[in-house]
Each structure stands twice: as structure tokens, then as C-alpha cells.
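Predict structure. Chain length: 245.
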Amino acid sequence: MNEEDFGRKLVIPGDEIGSGKAGHNAYEEDGKVLSKVVGLAERRNGMAFVIPLSGIYSPKRGDGVVGKVQEVSFSKWIVDVNSPYDAVLPLNEAVDEFVDFTKTDLTKYFNYGDMVFAEISSVSKTKNVQLSMRDRKCRKLREGRIIKVVPAKVPRIIGKSGSMVEMIKSMTGTQIVVGQNGVVWIKGENEVVAAEAILTVEKMAQKQGLTDYIKDILEKKMGKPYEAQPKRSEEFAEEEFKEGE
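Prediction complete.
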């Protein structure tokens, strides 16, 4: 099978996905490459691999995640990032100012149950996960609603260069933060409509022409045509977010 003719196809465990070297979520047997999981098979640079359609989130350095504060302890917060491994947010990665532990209650900054958007700064071999709030995009997420999606579907929800999520935000007038861990925060008057659109993208991720399909649904629900907005600068988007808080 030529790599050019392979394309992307849906496979289940044990399906043959070609020959050569086995990549992620694939294995070799009798000179063939087989799938380990349910997902989309691809070949690239002589390697066959599978993009899983389901599964747990495995933390990776540099990922932006939406998490929930589970514990507040001495000089750190423990955050649930929708993974088998809890994440630690150290005080020095969350707060710039000097903090006197004898006089300051850390819940002043992040309290039990608070939702945050943070970046994974490191993951050890034993899966000790550390978070950071140093990036300007990181912040506490106030109010709004949370939905969960399959982490492997996040790239489809975001879309090429952010096209899908930007369209949903624009059409519904909502603020949306999509974590690589499959947790999505939505805030605005049309939270339900935005959530339904995101869950539809997750459910129909393999559909051809999905962007146009979602656009048609939103145009009917919102009663207005979609007009693509010019790409905003990071600075403008950030200020708008802060004002919305």
C-alpha cells in the first residue's frame, strides 16, 4: 500500500494499518503493523500510527489545561486535571508577590473548587505533574460552566488555526477556554448553545465538512449569519477576557 494512497481511516484493535515501522498506538506482528486502539490510522514518513478516539488524558509538558483546585496546602495547591495523576501548582509558579505564610491564607489566591487555566511546566518519569500560571493566558476561570470531552478530540474542537472554536465563540457571544486535557470552560448568555455545538463536534469529529455543518446549526439557533471576525491580537483578546471577568 502506497503511503500516498493510505489517507486516514477508522480502525479498531487488531486492524492492519500497513507495513514498516509501528508508531504511537500501533505494534508490529508478522511483518505487519496493527492498531492497538480504536482511532484514526495514518502513515507519515514511513511510519504507521493511530490517533486514538477515546482514552484518558496523559499530561505533557507545555499543555494548557483546565483544572479544579482540590486541596490547599503549605506553599502549593493540588489540582485535578482530568487525569489519573493530580497536578501540583507551587506558590512560586502562581503568585509574583512575596507571601508570608504566617499571615496569609492561600485561599486568598485560589480556593477549594476554583477552576483555573494553567500550563503543565513539567512531568517526571514517575508522573509527578507540575503546573505554572506564568504564561499570560493562564488565569482563574470565574463562573461559567464546565463540560468534558474526549481529550483526543480537542484538536477537532479547536479547529485549524482555532477556526472551529472561534466560530462557536463568535456566533454565541461566549468566552471559551479549551484545555488539552478535555475540559472546556464556557461563559456567556448562550452557554447552552455553545456547549451543544462543542459536544456535536466531539460526537461527529470524523464528519466531512464539519465546520459548515456546525455553522449551519448555529445560524439557525442564533438566527443570524456567521461573519468571520478578523484575527485578534493576543493582547486584545486578553484584555477582553479580563473585562469579561
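Summary: The chain has three domains: 3-52, 64-141, 145-224.
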